Amino acid sequence: MRTATALMFFLCTFFAEAQISGYKRSVNEGNRLFNEEKYEESYKKFQQAIAKRNGINTEAAEYNAGNAKYKLNDYQEAENTYKKIIRSTSNKSLKAKAYHNLGNTHYQNKDYRNAVEAYKQALILDPSDDETRYNLARALTMLQNQKSSEGGMANDKKNNNQRQNDSKSGQLSENETQENEKSKIDETIAENLMQYLNQKDNEVQSKVREKEHKKKRTRKNEKDW
Prior knowledge:
It is a single chain. This protein is mainly α. The chain folds into 2 domains: 15-72, no CATH class; 92-205, Serine Threonine Protein Phosphatase 5, Tetratricopeptide repeat (Alpha Horseshoe), CATH 1.25.40.10. It is 79% helix and 0% strand. The chain contains 8 helices and no strands. It has helices spanning 21-35, 39-51, 59-71, 75-88, 92-108, 112-125, 130-164, 169-224. Helix 1 packs antiparallel against helix 2 (39-51), helix 5 runs antiparallel to helix 6 (112-125) and helix 6 packs antiparallel against helix 7. 28% of the residues are buried.
């Protein structure tokens, strides 16, 4: 059961079929190694597939290579790969998955602001993706925590600047107001997302209880008979 407090990431996979046997063989072998958690070997197989391009669309191999790099904690290389896919692909589903995983790389690097933006783009392309919605909620929460932590240091610096130059106090106050308004908007989004996820969990639990109740009732009827 997925809870609102658990930090879970879902790395989207996209193992597309290829038409050319040599390319297809390398991609399939890379997929097998990836599923066996042999990510270094998997990455090499995807690179072999890419080298056999010869006019073939190698987006699947490139994307999967990015996933292998992500699993190897090479987030910079994974990020570069996902960005390349986003720029080049016309496949809406693949682009949504690339944005999702790009958000994951930003999250791992504690770049929560860019993680939020990447997840939002993924949801624009695929609004039905609950996994992306969940990750967005977590990223928004972490972004708020990060802002709160940085806020204390920023306030000390602002106080020093205000004492040195009172003429800028009005501008600082305006910027603070704009930042507070944006924070409130992000907090509202995060709260709504968490409520949505809690509702989904409650629906699942309700269905499980209903199913168990039906089983018990069936067993009782069989016994009475």
